[in-house]
Structure formats: C-alpha cells, structure tokens
## 1
Amino acid sequence: METVKIRVQGIVQGVGFRPNVYRIAKKLNINGYVRNLGNLVEVIAQGEDIEKFIESLSHEKPPVSKINSIEHENIECNRIFSDFKILESSLSSSGSSVIPPDLAVCENCLEELMDENNRRYEFPFIACTDCGPRFSVIKSIPYDRDRTTMDEFPLCEECLVEYKNPLDRRYHAEASCCDRCGPSLRLYDGESKPIFDENPIKKSVELLDDGNIMAMKGIGGTHLVCKVTDDVILKLRGRLNRLNQPFAIMSPDLETIKTFAEFDELEERSLKSIESPIVVVKKNKNYSFPDSLAPILHNIGVILPYSPIHHLLFDYTNEPAYVMTSANIPGEPMVIDNEDILSELKGIADYFLLHNRRIVNRCDDSVVRYVDGVLSFIRRSRGYAPEPYDLKKYSNDLNVLALGSELDVTFTILKNGLGFVSQHIGNTNKFRTYRFLQEGIDHLANITSTNNFDLVAVDMHPQFFTGSLGVELSENYGAELVRVQHHHAHGAVLAFDNDVDELVFIGADGVGYGDDKTAWGGEILYCDISSYERLGSLSPQRMPGGDTSTKYPARFLLSILYDVYDNDELRRLFINDYVDFFKYREKEIDMVLKQLERNFNVPITTSAGRILDSISVALGICGRRTYEGEASMKLESVASKSTSNIKIDLEFNKHENRPVLDTSTILKQVIEMKNNGVAIKDVAKAGQNAVAIGLGKMAVDGATMKNVDVIGATGGVFYNEAISNSVKEYVEKRGFRFIRNNNSCAGDGSISLGQAIVSTYRKG
Ligand SMILES: [Zn+2]
Ligand SMILES: [Zn+2]
Ligand SMILES: [Zn+2]
C-alpha cells in the first residue's frame, strides 16, 4: 500500500491543526497518524484519496493556523494502519517551530461566557483551540500543556474529556480550563490586603466607576485601568508622572466607538481582528472625552475588549470606555509578577485585580495606524509577535541574532530563513528593560530551538547597550559581529516589505548614528540591501547640549536660527516669545547663545524629527517634550485643521558634496509668517509640508541620478499622514513608484529586522 509522509511547517501548533487533520482523515478514510515534532507537524497517511487529503490540508485549515510549507514524499512502510490517530508530541526536533501569538477570545467562547446555562458562564479564563494565551504562557516546545504555565492547573474530569476528544473544540487546547480547575481572580486593596468578594469583576467595576485606579493583570500583561473623566485621568497622570502622553482607551463595541471616533473598513477590520491591536483613529465631531486624555491630538488609540475579563468588565458598567494603559513605570517593562505588581504599583493603583496564572513572556498591546489606507505598525507586539517574516530570499541557513537600536527596541532571531521579531522590549538604556531584552532572547532562542548564532548584528552606535550586549553575545557564540547603520536597516525593511532589491529612500526619524559619527535623521539614501550611499540630507544643525535639546526643543530652534538672524535680534525674539520654553529662562538663552558662539558641546544632527519639533516650538504648539514624538504629533494635529495652501520657499545648498535642504530658512519663514499674523494651523501645515517636499525633491533627484524608479519613505516621521501623503504625491507625479512600510514598523521597532536582513544578505 502507498504510504505518504507529509510535513507541514508554519503556525501549526496550538491552533487545533492536528485535530483538523484528524477530521479530514476520517472524512476521506485515510489511515495513519499525525504528530507534532516541535518544529513541524508530521502526517503519515495511507488510503485511496491521498491527493485530495493533501489538498484539503491546505484549504480546510483552522482559522488561526498559517502554513508556510507543506511537503510530501512516498515512503517505504511495511505497516498497514487500520485507523487514524493523533500521537503524543515528540521532543526530537530540527528546524524552527512557530509558536502562535496570544489571540483574542473567539466568538464561540464569548457565547459560552455569556450563556447562563453554560458551565463556563462568566468564567474569566475561558479559552479554546481558536483563542486565548499562547506565546505569553509557553515555557518551552513542543507546545503542550505541561510546558506552559497552565501546568499548575491540572484539568478536572470534565475538562479532561474535552481535552482528549479530537472532535471537541477544546481538544488539546492547552489553555483550556474551568472554574473548578483553572486560575482564579483575586482583588487586593492598595495595601496588598485581599478583599474577598464573590464577584471580583463586578466589584472592580464599582471601584472603577467610583473613580479609583486599578491595576489589572490580564493575559500577556498588566494594565492600569480607570474611568475616562478629567479628575481621574489627571490623578493617573500625576501618579505616573506622565504629563501629556496620550492614553489608549478600551470601548465595549464598534457602535460605542462610532459615537466619538471615525473609522473606515480597514480600521474596523483591525479592531475586530484576533490580533486585537490598539488602532489609532480620528476623533469625530461628537468626541467629548476630556482633553487630558490625549492633549491637543486629533486622534486617539482605541481597542476592543480582547480577553474574557475585559468583556465581563463592560458587561457590568455603563461607561463608554476605560483608560487601558500598560502598567509600567515610564520607560520600564510592564510588571507581570503578582508580588511586583503589588509592590511597584503601590501608590499608583488604588486596587489590584490579579490572578494566579504566571506570565512567562510579557507582551504589550500592539498599536497600529493606517496611513492613506496602508497599515503602519507603531508597535508590533501582542497578537503578532513572534510570528515570523519569511526571509528565505535572503538566507536559508544562517542563524542570526539582531539586537535593534536603543529606543523602541525589538530583537530578531533569524533561523532557517524565518525572521522571528520579538515583542516590544522598550528603551534599553533602562536597566530593567535591558534585562528584559536578555531574558527575551533566551526565551525566544529556546522556543525556536536555536542554540547557536553565525552572526550577531548591532547598530553602529559605539555606546548603545544593545551594542555591548552584541559584542558579548558574539564572543559567547563565536559569531561574527556585524554593525549595520540605522537608516540602512530601515531601508532594508522597506525593500523587503515591498519586495524590491534596489531603491532610493527617505529615512526620516529622530536619530540614527551615521557613518560620519553625527546624528542622522533626515536622509536620502540609495540602498541595494547589502550597501547604501548617502545622496542628500537636511542641512546639518548644531544641537546645544545634545539630548537636552531634544527635551527642550527651543534650544535647538535657537541654534537653527543662529546663522539667519542678527545676534541681538535673535536674543530679543527669544526673550519676547520663547523664554517660557527654557528651564532657566533668560539665563539659559544667553548660555545657549554662548555655546553656539564658542561651538562648544554642539553635536551635529540632520534629524527631521527635531526640525518638526522646532516648527512646533516656533509656533508655540509644544515647548517642552514630555514623551517621544510629542512636539511633532501635536504639530500634525494642529496642521490637520488647516485647508490653506500657503507655501514656504525652499533653498538647497551643498554640504560635503551632497545636496542639503536648508532648514534654517524654513524655520525663519515659519517665524515670519506667524509674526505676520498667518493662522498657526496654516503655518503648521506649510512648515511640515516644506520638510516633506524638500525631502521629496532630493529623493527624486537622487533616484534620477541613480537611475532607480522606486522611491521609499520610512522612519518614525512617516507616521505623520500629511507628510507621508505629500511625499507620495510629489514622487508619483514625477513618475516614480512610491513605497512605504506596510507590514512592519516605520519606526525603530523594525530596526532589528533590517539588521538581520542586511547582515544575512551580505553573507548570503
Ligand atoms: Zn475560543
Ligand atoms: Zn475544569
Ligand atoms: Zn529610526
């Protein structure tokens, strides 16, 4: 009898793949078996309809699974199977396994959750093969219950019957449980004293609606939750010392979101998806939440309930939304252990709603925004990580570890041509985040069965912690250390995302270390993946006091204008209009002027992000940065209200043989317009448009010179929809194909992916 061995790779573990194979086999009278090999699913099949069987495997797959490859071969086999079986997982493995991300509660479970007659009625940990935690609870592979944190909750008899029945939705659903055998919730007060209440969720809603701030441990992390009223938001801001950064809100359903925000079909699809990210949508004219929720911004991050706990919360309240923000000390990783939550959030949360299932791998909510109909990841984390990118076109056999940049770090493990980008790690200049990075690497290496690396890729910056960690790890693994320029990594991701091998692109962001040792961030680069060439940039400007200028962008504005104003006139202008934006007022203005005169401690930058910040300061929109991107986000929001077409004249110069866009004359015109009484929103629009068109023009010139017909745009600046669209229009009008990130972060969240691509491609 013909025997066929079928091997399926992809997201095929923990998603009901084997019972699905079982059902198809039964239907087609196929005998043999299916088993998990840790890295893949193997099927041995005998029967008449083998061809149809193989075809059905790829077409009738479970909703959550993803097939990367399906291979089959005839094998010698003396045994005749009389039945089809699902075998236990085998520990032997090679290649890489793909662990599914955490998934939002499914429709079937939701129905049971709300059904009084169901034995899981109102059970906050309801889950099945199609939903629930995966990545955040898995300790090692193959993905089986005893290798997850569910191992502390042995199944009760009833659950075990479901678990063992291949025809049941909970067959081998590793997170399945019920109120007899699963985790449970407990409420604590601010002093960590337990509060005994029959229904801790209902009680929590009462506390929330009374204006208390609660820390709630969920599936892959912990949230701070509160009512969306001014007094409570300000209380939360005060306790977190988070002055202006917008908070995302969770709202019970689309109908409710519609009452305060606009969303189109794509945004709706993302909101409802099993990945369930925060989606940044536009406030509508009926928006009436207090301004303190997302000060000055024209948009707001919203998310639908994704865990059973969230659904139950909204079942008990009439509030249209709750603030839902990652529970962390700013800059540090989210707290996930009960003891840490109680001790570290003491004084921040008034009450705590915790459960006793451990989180192995924290995963912040993902954040997406659509720019002109194209999905832009602001943060790619829960629901997406660690689903890999297929990088086989660059390499099949190199093992690579790429460590990202410094802020907004993710890391990437490339193995067997699959690029596993980690969840959001954060700012690695904080000790705890740095430790989270190290733990994250160990964990992801473990669940992808990666024991060695050929290459370790890091940023070129000599002082990043990720760089020194890279040096250490490359020595430990005997791997070659590869340094990849920041914007080159951005460009490589863009090329991969759009399947091109050569392009000219604009890399516009806050900062990336350049090969001339200055801070780049408004660059025109040619890139063929293995190498790059700098074709143009914004004019180099001096940053008095370096990073201090980032926090207090008025210092930078003063520097930009230093050469285009007479000294006394400049001093007068700043003392009259901008003195409030300097911490030490007049004294500081004079000090900065002296610094500029002496050319002392004034590192050079071509950052576009900093120029947008300066426009924002010049217009009095944002004088001090309290969170990353604040000044330019507010600028975008103010500009979005303008319908004017007033323009700023652009001037281009040469610097070290490359064309540069003169940003000093842009800022000078911004100030003149403002002082001539042009509306702030109109100048804001003209200012950001000038930067966009200036970069667009240099990109077109560069692409023409290089004879390349694709122009791309990447870097955090391109989350700004107006800038992105201006560049697109300018470039397309001149006959070029315009590309941008569409399945990756435009910001630094995908630097590690780019580093992996560049380093492999060079070796490959
Ligand atoms: Zn389910
Ligand atoms: Zn049970
Ligand atoms: Zn960047």
## 2
Amino acid sequence: MADASSPPRAFNNCTACHAAEAGQYGVGPHLAGIVGRTAGGVEGANYSAALASSGIVWDEDTLVRYLVNPNAVVPGGSMPATGLDEAEARGVVDYLNTL
Ligand code: HEC
C-alpha cells in the first residue's frame, strides 16, 4: 500500500499550477491545509472574483465536485477542468487531507 502522504498519480494533473507546500506560488494557490479552509484563503494568491466571493468552505465532498467539474462549483472561476473522474478526485482529496 502507498504511503498515506505520498501523492496519488492523479495529483500530477495539479502540480503544473499548484504546490503542496505553504508559501509556494504557482499559477494557482498552494494547497497546504486546503481541506476545511474557506475558498480564496491564501494570502497573495491570484483568485478570480467568482471564487474569492463564493463563500465556499472546502469540505471533502465539495472538493471532489470541484475537481471533477470546477465550473459547476465556481461558475466563472479561473481553474480549468482537471480531467479527473470522481474516483481519481477522491484519491487526490484523501491526499490533500494529509497536507
Ligand atoms: C492550469 C492550472 C491549474 C491546474 C492544472 C489545477 N488548478 Fe486548481 N486552481 C487554479 C487556479 C488559477 C485557481 C484559482 C481559481 C479561481 O480563483 O477561480 C485554482 C484553485 C484551486 C482550488 C481552490 C483553492 C482555494 O484556496 O480556494 C483548489 C482546491 C484547487 N485549485 C485544487 C486543484 C487540484 C487538486 C488540481 C489537480 C487535480 C488542480 N487544482 C489543478 C489552477 C489550476
């Protein structure tokens, strides 16, 4: 079995734009501590108005839905589709939970 904190393969679809460590900036905000945080909470990240004003709190189910279809959860947001199916998104969210 894989180490609980090692990223699943599907996380490769994220790393072009997101870092897993706090304090690192890519095209998107870092993802450390994302589970349970309010959307748009990373200081200095370049968020769309749609996401920043969404009021979403990132619980696991909302994250899975967002990763499968960003535009369905944050209409007008700036994250493009990730290409993940629901099972892959679950695996990624399980990993995000360890960050
Ligand atoms: C092409 C670049 C890109 C890819 C690939 C990408 N994202 Fe994003 N992501 C963004 C951008 C840009 C935002 C900010 C969206 C906005 O402000 O509307 C974002 C926002 C997010 C947020 C909300 C963060 C917050 O602080 O509210 C999460 C969670 C997230 N992405 C997770 C992922 C995961 C997990 C993957 C891989 C499955 C992924 N993203 C793939 C660019 C990307």
